Amino acid sequence: MAEAHQAVGFRPSLTSDGAEVELSAPVLQEIYLSGLRSWKRHLSRFWNDFLTGVFPASPLSWLFLFSAIQLAWFLQLDPSLGLMEKIKELLPDWGGQHHRLRGVLAAALFASCLWGALIFTLHVALRLLLSYHGWLLEPHGAMSSPTKTWLALVRIFSGRKTMLFSYQRSLPRQPVPSVQDTVRKYLESVRPILSDEDFDWTSALAQEFLRLQASLLQWYLQLKSWWASNYVSDWWEEFVYLRSRRSLMVNSNYYMMDFLYVTPTPVQAARAGNAVHALLLYRHRLNRQEILPTLLMGMRPLCSAQYEKIFNTTRIPGVQKDHIRHLRDSRHVAVFHRGRFFRVGTHSQSGLLSPRALEQQFQRILDDPSPACPQEEHLAALTAAPRDVWAQVRSSLKIQAKDALEAVEGAAFFVSLDSEPAGLTREDPAASLDAYARALLAGRGHDRWFDKSFNLIVFSNGKLGLSVEHSWADCPISGHMWEFTLATECFQLGYSADGHCKGHPEPLLPQPQRLHWDLPEKDRGEFCLTYESTMTRLFLEGRTETVRSCTREACNFVRAMEDKEKTEPQRRALFRLAVEKHQALLKAAMSGQGVDRHLFALYIVSQFLHLRSPFLDQVHSEQWQLATSQIPVQQIHLFDVHNYPDYVSSGGGFGPADDHGYGVSYIFMGDDTITFHISSKKSSTKTDSHRLGQHIEDALLDVASLFQEGQRPKPRCRGLQEEDSGHRGGSLPCHRRGSGAPTKSTNF
Questions:
Q1: Where are the alpha helices (DSSP H) in 229-336?
Q2: Are 560 and 571 in contact (CB under 8 A)?
Q3: How far apart are CA 636 and CA 632, in angstroms?
Q4: Which of 87, 153, 343, 365 is the most exposed place for a label (fewest CB within 10 A)?
């Protein structure tokens, strides 16, 4: 998603304004601190799990083991082989009447030690099993005997009741690839876009890097991989996200849309009430670890670490570096409406407020006629300012409006009740989706709190959307939450016949609290390097890796489609080669054998050592003119797209990674629906999102015709064709959409 934009902002130095960051700490100290942060996270997670009774295992399992030992002891059997007697000798002698108590304590201590040893053995065995990646390399739909055996063992060692973080202590660490392999793959990825002369020059730089600097930098990465949880993820978060001084708006945030064709209720407050209630139900399940861990292809668990910061999280600006603040709990949401800020409690003494009670609170805000203060109305625009500017202003704001600022930053999440409608209209689908996406990505620039982990946006006609800050987690995490929210608020909570939330209001609830800010006046047609994001959550604390999808095989296929002399069998063969190459790159990246994160980490070490590498400088000066990302549908069981085809989400999108490039996001819903989101900057004279959308549509139809006996399939746009522009639509919902304020974009 938006990570491509941040990765580009990183080049070639570590700040967006071109100034070189002085990394004064020795690299060994930085590696030590990375490991220390990892161990602190492990201890914090261990303590939380211990308090909730889920680690190292259920207390019932300990009680069962203790009871079995006591029973054996009663039957004059010693399962400890004399160890309990030795433990009794080490315990204090409290007199003869307490002899039995010493025996019980000895049995409890022995049971605890045995219990811990068994669990540790299970974790080690499961980690060894999860280090196997042979299943990933097998053809789709086929499963070899070793993989079947491996899968059976994984299920045995995983236990009967898996919880969200059950696998965290058993996931293998992400391996550091061979530097020779990484450089070889990098050269292979740039070969299609470079001339022979430029490629020879780049190859020479690469060989010089391998000869002079690679082995030393690789040694430090190996050291970090042994000491820290992940050799790259914490540096990726810090240097690509938290050290970036750019505005978060468009550059770092991304958005997610509502159901495309359906709005369950036109009542704005009711939709907000159900959505907030559903989100807090998700948080409740998250806190109790009742969300099942994601299994790739139904077999391999993925890392769940990123789920920890979905709620109660804010990115706090700093002059040189931001930091992420996460609270254990928050019992209110911050609400913005017509330039005013409110604090709305989400719980009463009896627990979570009902959807109808939340609707009542939101309706009170909508009905409040009080005007916004002049400085308050555009205050949130500061969160869209460059980070160093916002950090300086926030330091004074924290003194002058401490309580109001804490109410916003300490909220579970931010809710924006917009005064305008949004969503797809059949009269003008292109313009309506443009406006919808633009409102989600940027709004008006002053009606979103971009620092929050996510903003829930509720439009006046009941349409929903999310604006998500990227540093705390990647898109599949927020996508998982959003799928649950849409399915729960629509299908489980539902609405009454008049469009309101079910249930009864609670008139005795206190009014939403208006926040007051004591504010002073403020100042008001060629191949290109392609970034495709994939996840590395097969490994502990893994995040993402880049798939360099502009391969020679893909280029050969594209040229064949343009070459009238090529036959359809030749094109099909080249298409299959391109797909096979792409799948190989994808699987390599997912299994920790990608290119860019390894090169990124090598570059960070070189900066710590003040060791200049022309090759690494060249790598990080590349222009990603095409950034792509898929939003995976992870909980398809929540949606019946066959019986209810209108209840499909159109996914979300992000801004372009390059000033003269495109950001392309896509989502598959069911077997026959693809939605694309294409963004580009209005300031560029080289890009046009609507034209690119038409080109992609034509390309999809041409590819489909290769496998349908030469018959070019007709697009099915569900009545959304645009007669004025001649846009035929794509192979399914061919809707165009918009992006942020400084961008122009399309969706089809």
A1: 233-235, 268-287
A2: yes
A3: 10
A4: 153
CA dist., res. 423 & res. 458, Å (int): 11
CA dihedral 733, 736, 738, 739 (to 10 degrees): 70
Residue spans of beta strands (DSSP E) within 405-527? 414-417, 454-458, 464-469, 513-514
- Degrees to nearest 5, angle at CA 344 with 339 and 350: 170
Token digits of residue 85: 């007697």
Q: Which helix (H) or strand (E) holds 158?
A: helix 145-158
pTM above 0.70, yes or no: yes
CA distance 31 to 34: 5
**Which pLDDT tens digit goes with each residue over 451-463?**
999 999 999 999 9
List CB contacts of 283: < 8 A, sequence separation 6 or more. Answer: 310, 311, 412
Q: Is residue 470 flagged as an active site residue?
A: yes
3-state DSSP call for residue 666?
Answer: strand
The answer on pLDDT for 151 being more than 70 is yes
CB burial readout 51-69, b (16+ within 10 A) else e: eeebbbbeeeebeebbeeb
Helix or strand holding residue 546 (H, E) = strand 544-548
Cα dihedral angle (740, 741, 745, 748), rounded to 10 degrees?
60
CA distance 682 to 742: 6
Question: What kind and span of H or E run contains 83?
Answer: helix 83-90
- pLDDT at residue 117 above 70? yes
E strands present in 189-299 = 253-257, 295-296
pLDDT at residue 120, rounded to an integer: 82
Residues in the chain: 748
Q: Give per-residue pLDDT as tens, 586-614.
A: 888 888 888 888 988 898 888 888 888 88
Name the active-site residue from 5, 337, 470, 735: 470
Chain-centroid distance, C-alpha 626: 20
Q: What is the CA radius of gyration of the chain?
A: 28
For residue 55, give Cα distances in angstroms to 30, 43, 119, 201.
30, 12, 10, 55
Measured on CA atoms in the order 430, 432, 435, 439, is the torsion positive or negative? negative
Residue listed under structure tokens 């609400």? 335
